[in-house]
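User: Look at the shape:
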Amino acid sequence: MKQTVKRLIKDLLEFKWHIIFILVCAILIVLSNLFIPLYIGRAIDCIKLKESVDFTNLYKNLIYIFISIVIYGISQFALNRLNQVINCEVARNLRNKMFDKLQRLDFTYIDANPKGTILSHIINDVDILTEGLYMMFLQFITGSLTIILTIAFMFYINPVITLIVIFLTPLSMLVARFVSKKSFSAFITQANKRDKILSMTRENIYGMSSIYLFNKENYKYEQFISADEELRKSSLDAIFFSSVPNPSTRAINAFIYALISIVGAFLVISGNISIGNLTSFLTYAQQYSKPFNEISGVITELQNALVCAKRVYEFLDEKEFEKDNEDSKAVDDISGDLKLEAVAFSYDKNKDFIKDMNLSIKSGMKVALVGPTGCGKSTLINLLMRFYETDAGAILVDNYNIKSIKRNSLLSSYGMVLQDTWLKSGTIRENIAFGKKDASLEEIEKVCRQCMADSFIRRLPKAYDSEVDKGAENLSIGQKQLLCIARVMLSNPPVLILDEATSSIDARTELKVKRALDKMMEGKTSFIVAHRLSTIKEADIILVMKDGHIIERGNHEELIKQNGFYKELYNSQYVG
């Protein structure tokens, strides 16, 4: 936790001038607020008897009271404004850093963590953190200054009663300390349960059709109710511990106030303190106790904020893509020769997955990857693109080790069309030109005609300038896949990766798109991940994978003659 506080302070020091002005405003607020009771007490002492009122000093004290009120109001406004600026800036900076981090995160983190949890870190955790900072600047700093300066003013009026107040103060502090320890663990539990609810809700929204299909609405509802009940219990614990300090410290402060009143009354009778000074002192006693109530409440808010800060910094510390070496070079003329030399990789380093894999692909070859689910097809693709780093061995592109090529240069040489489509918010034209920003409309229209997307695009209200709705809900799955194919065709990379690229397209359109894809693959190295084996009969080489290993290789006829695993897969689809 100390490390989290240090990093938070470091981020806040970017706004040191704002913080200095906040401290100045806080001092002015506290001083002006403390001078008001002092002048009120002096004004009371100017009224001794009806016949003997010191009007000169009375008016002077009233003017001082008015000036103090004006300073208090202006300073309070300035502090609130500066506080809001800092919180907005801190939230913006953290979210910018987190989104930037998201672009560079190692794929193992993305694959291992629910998307709802990642969203919660970027949105909820930052919001709760900045709310805690707001309370800290608004109440914690002013409250601390109030306590310190009030003691000074009380000593000025009467040291004896001040010592009584100070002696009883630790009671409030002990209560606050006890609760802060309890509330910290309660807030951690609450944050984890909240993440679970977010992930579950997101999963439910994306899988709504399947849930309806299998009549699982009640089952999912019961799951949600159970998770929500856990959140309710953890929230109640957090709320309970955060609500304990206020009534506890108020009871202690009420006792202190009553004791001061009694002691003060005896001092007035004995002539050791004036009525005006006792009035000022009682006001100070209230002002002195009030920050303890506020600070004890703020401490629980800060505990929650620190929990969220810890989660934010843990996210920012997650492993990133391996950076380019200093001697990495940009290669612009990649032809597509690929080699794997004794490559090894595993997700769990205690268990082997891909081990000692060797492969040589010549430029322009059409390579098909087949095998059961989980056999390593997608993993191999991710290794080729450096989404995952190899544990051992080397991957060569045109005889360059891919680790010696700048990552951007390497990735610009690949084009991918996946079964799961992705479109960004924006126009159809912007989505197709995503990989080639300087593409003209004529170029975009040409590739769309080739992949059979032009006709449906022109039926949209604004054709190529039509907006893709959030999540592209205004397009069918097949239409979205055609746009993704057009995007890759436009960027025209030397290496293509097609993962069931036509799986969501009707049979008639698929034939035409297949012709366009075959034309696009001419002269390019192509990797085709396929489940329908009829689509890869024309591949130059078929790699049959199982449990992370290439167990068979050859073209369709050769593999059928081998009477091995490939023939078994093929027969399971097309025989009988």
Q: What stands out?
A: The radius of gyration is 35 Å. The longest strand covers residues 338-345.
